[in-house]
Amino acid sequence: MSQLDLARLQFAMTSIYHFLFVPVTIGLGFLTALLQTAWHRTRLPEHLRLTRFFGTLLVINIAVGVVTGLVQEFQFGMDWSAYSRTVGDVFGAPLAMEGLAAFFLESTFLGLWLFGWDRLPERVHLATIWAVAVGGALSAAFIMAANSWMQHPVGYTVDAETGRPRLTDVWKLFTNPVFLRGYLHVLLASVVTGAVVMLAVSAWQLRKGRSPIAFHASARLSLVVLVPALLLAMLVGSELGVTEGKYQPMKIAGAEAQWTTCQPCSFSLFQIGGGNNDQTPTKIIAVPHLLSLLATNHWNGQVLGLNEVQSQYQAQYGPGDYVPDVFVQYWSMRVMAYLAVVVLLVALWGLWLLWRKRLTAARAFQRVAVWVVVLPFLMNTAGWLLTENGRQPWIVQGIQLTRNGVSPSITTTTVAISIVVFFLLYAALAVIEVFLMLRYARRELEPAPAEGTRTPSLTY
Asked: Which H/E stretch holds residue 269?
């Protein structure tokens, strides 16, 4: 493998690993805040016990996730220095905002929440967990703004002296149509992930017969949040496909392995072939007009084929192969979509049991709900692959090719050694994360402290 291949492999490995933690932090942060708000309003001790229980899982996830995020920052200087030099004037702005605003907000108020029990007034302490949740969401916003600029560059001009992009309008980073829909999609996917984690833990505890009143409440909260969040994520994801079809037609054509331009276009539920070396796939099941509807919002909309977009890019950017890995594109989209349908069916099953007041005794559902916890992580990974692979061979669409972004000063051996180091580091972190999450998720609820024993003081 070349230096470029290894650098891409390393960044993919670290990004996918880090992205396992981010949705849990955002989703579980909001759900923990909802539990504490419920306790503040109802004074039911079960809500307080659940807040402390799921808050512990949230803290573990943040602690390990922060370490994996820091490694990514170093890679920009180590493996991608040419990229950093070229677009640093633009890309650095949202990253700086993320570190100086969102991360400080999240980490500061997480500390206040952790050590503020029995010390801060209840309303102030409640505000701290909401600040943690908002900080996590803001952090994702700044990262997504930077990533969306790589997908669809806006708000910049090319410096006549250096030939590099220079940011001229920071507001356009946050009104970028790719950012608006992409960020909302990530936010909803995070809520879905947090809700499924809470549902799985609650289902496991209900199976063991522990604190049934409390864990019935957390299962109910997760189901009530999960279904609308998942439906909205599907809707926004569909709209994001229309936006990308406008600005990145190669990405959408690759997701359908559509080599020729079509109108109207069918959506293949499953097909054999259609990769980069096979332009005549065998479509097993094709749904007429569905691709036109998904890619253009029109029943008979036209979808450009890979060959036509390739010709357009060659005319615009010069000779080259601008087609991404079609196999990865095609199956990433379907894995994400099909697993989302599975999660939705399980959630609807749970809502039906909840309505029939049979959730606590439904052993079969509880077993399924525990194992469903894996699916959101697979969905998030597939969605990330769909987004990032679809941009190739560009590292910044239309501005810089990926092969021109790698560091010229490092060797293939250096990158290979660092991959091994990162793999071992992440393997150790994975063992720690899984051990801690399972250990604390299987613990029984601690009893709630008696009312009147709290001694709030802002001068502590």
From this structure: strand 267-272
**What pLDDT does 460 receive?**
40
Length of the chain: 460
**Burial status of residue 327 (CB atoms within 10 A of its CB: 0-12, 13-18, 19 or more):** middle
Residue 172, class by beta-carbon neighbours within 10 Å (0-12 exposed, 13-18 middle, 19+ buried)?
A: middle
Does pTM surpass 0.85? Answer: yes
Report the SS3 class of residue 228. helix
Contact 432, 63 (CB under 8 A): no
* Torsion sign over Cα 260, 264, 268, 272: negative
* Below-70 pLDDT ranges, the chain: 450-460
Quote the CA–CA distance of 84 and 407 in Å, as a whole number: 9
Half-sphere exposure of 91 (CA within 13 A, CB side): 20
Q: Is 236 helix (H, G, I), strand (E, B) or coil?
A: helix
Tell me the C-alpha distance between 86 and 125, whole Å.
44
Q: At 166, phi and psi to the nearest 5?
A: -130, 130
CA proximity to 77, closest of 85, 87, 89 = 85
Query: Cα-flanking dihedrals φ and ψ of residue 136, to 5°?
Result: -65, -40
Cβ neighbours of residue 84 closer than 8 Å, sequence gap 6 or more = 76, 77, 91
Angle of helix 212-247 relative to helix 326-355, nearest 10 degrees, comes to 150
pLDDT confidence of residue 454: 56
| DSSP letters spanning 133-185 | HHHHHHHHHHHHHHHHHHHS--SEEE-TTT--EEES-THHHHH-HHHHHHHHH
Contact assessment for residue 32 and residue 200, using Cβ atoms and an 8 Å cutoff:
no
CB proximity list for 459: less than 8 A, separation 6 or greater: none
